[in-house]
Specification:
Helices cover about 35% and strands about 35% of the residues. It is of the alpha+beta class.
Length: about 190
């Protein structure tokens, strides 16, 4: 009986400690928990699982299709293969040409700067396009929760003018934990 009570107390303490860790959110869903749980929450928001895209990418990433901020998008959710814990998610919006990509970039740039106004902003350039990286602080301002990246990627097919707008969210606590678990194999 004492062993069961001690085990129960240890479980409760473990739950309380893990509940106190703050995580980045993607579409209002914390980047935490298992890929199965995260997938259920995405699907509850109308996002559909893409089995073909997921199979092409293999373990550690699942693909989805749906709407992100009123834009048709592909979603990529990254998780640790061993623990199945989610640490990163991104939406990728197809833009039919560079002007469309730049226009959408400017729109999301303004929205992200407004939402994460207390973050640290880093403007840059990649592939001839502007980029934005935001270090998002936690509510207690002690530690960073993670990063939000906004960038445009060119099509891999040279004669196509299509570009892809990436809105990328990464949770630092779970990314670091994932890297540590992977390092345990070395």
């Amino acid at each position: 009986m004492k062993k069961i009570t001690l085990s129960l107390i240890a479980c409760l303490i473990s739950l309380m400690v893990s509940a106190q860790v703050e995580h980045m959110k993607f579409m209002g869903i914390p980047l935490n928990g298992t890929i199965t749980s995260f997938q259920s929450k995405l699907q509850a928001k109308g996002v559909k699982y893409d089995p073909i895209g997921s199979k092409q990418l293999g373990f550690g990433c699942r693909c989805f299709k749906g709407t992100f901020s009123n834009e048709k998008a592909d979603f990529y959710v990254y998780y640790n293969e061993k623990t199945k814990i989610v640490y990163r998610a991104k939406a990728v919006i197809t833009c039919y040409n560079k002007e469309d990509g730049n226009r959408k970039f400017a729109t999301f740039y303004g929205m992200l700067k407004s939402k994460y106004s207390d973050g640290e902003f880093y403007d840059g350039e990649q592939e001839g396009h502007p980029t934005l990286s935001i270090l998002v602080p936690g509510s207690k301002q002690e530690k960073a929760l993670g990063y939000v990246g906004l960038y445009i990627a060119n099509s891999s097919v040279p004669y196509i003018d299509e570009v892809y707008l990436h809105i990328d969210y990464e949770d630092l606590a779970n990314k670091n934990s994932s890297q540590k678990k992977n390092m345990d194999d070395l």
